[in-house]
Design a protein that fits this description.
This protein is mostly beta strands. The chain has 2 helices and 21 strands. The chain starts with a helix and ends in a 12-residue tail after the last strand. The model is unreliable at 6-10, 17-26, 260-272 and 275-305 (pLDDT under 50).
């Protein structure tokens, strides 16, 4: 035991050199834990009138690499009306046919507020009794790899002049049609599309949105074939496989294995697999299946070509 330790135990006080070290390290540790940087500003603020008394807001997430984004502040006409922790907010209790202006900011884990987003002005819908009822029974059906057909009905078709079709969330107007059906073309495989429809009467008054309907166009394109498959015997009961990874830009992929004609379906990281047995072959999975095959050696024999 050193003299300084003995003196510390007897006096109950730390040596001066240790006290100096603690004084030096404490500000550094405290400084490392403080986030003095505000989060980024939310982008793409969009407002959609849901009813005569409600407006739905969405925006792109802000970021803060130091302490993260804790929540958002929603401003309506300059006053805070909500503090959601997600990138959406439903503003309720509004006046019919009234225009409101919104901005959104992010607050990080240190309580620092970032800049406010660009201004988004939205008008609530007119009173519900002055509007036609919304379409009902909306159905979205996949017809091909680039097309989805929509059909719906309306409780008072004689009072409807036309229909407006919306796609996405938040809904974006894509088409106008006179009939209760629509063909949405030019779509992309392996994507889910969501739709809503409104009815417009002879005075140009639009209904509220119908209930949503969605459909996903399947991925019909197979992934690429694995290449450079190699089988290396490790022991009398184990063979390690490795190969160049396949790719599928639409829906991704997994890999399955077969040994001696038996299915050994497994999902794992493409590129490596260890399995026991005398004979193995590794196919790819997704769309139309094609298998790259390789036989390993048996009990020390050279692998078959």
């Amino acid at each position: 035991m050193s003299r300084s330790q003995i003196a510390w135990e007897r006096s109950g006080r730390a040596p001066a050199v240790l006290l100096g070290l603690l004084v030096f390290l404490t500000p550094i540790a405290a400084h490392a834990q403080v986030d003095n940087t505000p989060p980024s500003t939310p982008q793409d603020l969009t407002g959609i009138p849901a009813t005569s008394t409600q407006i739905n807001l969405t925006w792109s997430a802000a970021s803060d690499p130091e302490s993260g984004v804790s929540f958002y502040r929603v401003y309506r006409d300059g006053s805070v009306v909500g503090s959601p922790n997600q990138t959406s907010f439903a503003d309720t209790g509004l006046q019919p046919d009234t225009r409101y202006a919104y901005r959104v900011s992010a607050v990080n884990g240190a309580g620092i507020e970032g800049g406010r987003s660009s201004r988004e002005a939205v008008r609530t819908l007119e009173e519900a009794e002055d509007r036609p009822p919304p379409p009902t029974d909306l159905v979205a059906q996949v017809v091909s790899s680039t097309r989805i057909d929509l059909t719906w009905s309306h409780p008072d078709p004689g009072n409807v002049n036309k229909y407006w079709v919306y796609r996405g969330s938040p809904p974006q107007f894509i088409a106008e049609t006179d009939d209760p059906e629509y063909q949405d073309t030019g779509l992309t495989p392996a994507v889910t599309y969501e739709y809503r429809v409104t009815a417009v009467d002879g005075n140009g008054v639009e209904s509220v949105f119908s209930d949503p309907a969605s459909a996903r166009i399947p991925d019909a394109t197979p992934p690429t074939i694995p290449q450079n498959l190699e089988a290396a015997p490790v022991s009398t009961s184990r063979i390690d496989l490795s190969w160049s990874a396949s790719s599928d830009p639409e829906s991704g992929m997994g890999v399955s294995g077969r040994r001696s004609g038996r299915n050994l379906w497994k999902q794992f990281v493409p590129g490596h697999w260890a399995h026991s047995g005398n004979s193995v072959r590794v196919p790819r999975v997704g769309g139309e299946r094609r298998r790259a095959r390789e036989r390993s050696e048996r009990a020390g024999q050279r692998p078959d070509a």
